[in-house]
Amino acid sequence: MMKIVIPELDSPIIREAVNEYTGKADFVKADSLDEAAVMVERDEVDAMISGLDYSTRDVVLACKKYLPIKSQYFSGSFICKRDGKMFALADGGINKIPTKEQFLTIVEDTAKTFMEYTGKIPKIAMLSYSTFGSGGNNAELEKIQHVIENIRKKYPEWVIDGEMQLDVAVNPKVAKKKAPESLIQGDANVLIVPDLNTGNILYKALEQFGGFTVAGPIIQGFDKPLADLSRGSTVEDVKFTIDVIVKNARARA
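Now predict its structure.
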């Protein structure tokens, strides 16, 4: 049976969440983030979930200290769901202003996280204040085009398009009017934001105002499935995060 280490296992929120997974996964406690990361590094557990009582910085530093990086860079994505609608959002947890190379890795790893959990082909929207050049050209939009070109070459089966505004990415009626040539047509399931400010504010707005349940951030780029809970996570957020980690670990097995 899959084994997951959670340093905050004694928290009432965590306890209520893990009760849903009795018989599906084993949960073990660690006395610190360092101890939890070492357990992952030694293959004593299959995955780690933490962050309810720790900052993202603390969680990421523990992972960097003990765990090998699989991708060239690491990043944080969220899986958001409400009323049958589900999508991935990145990076809202780690990279402040990603370089072209970091940006490309964020897109790759977030699409793979989404595929591992849902089994669906990613439809990736590169979000911006601009839609297909409507806002003029600048270095940020050039960075987006660099990512799109490389993803299309490397993953021809994926759908990626942009740059585009959020309403074009998720609303078919708006997409038809603003961007009739878009490959996504308002049906994006992976949303990529230009920087950490945008991603963090957007995911918290979805959670606090939009009624979305959010898993993550899922820490991407390491060999083992890792998650960093928000310190404001609800029981439902924790259950959803466990579900994502369990399915992603099985997909990699």
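The mean pLDDT is 94.
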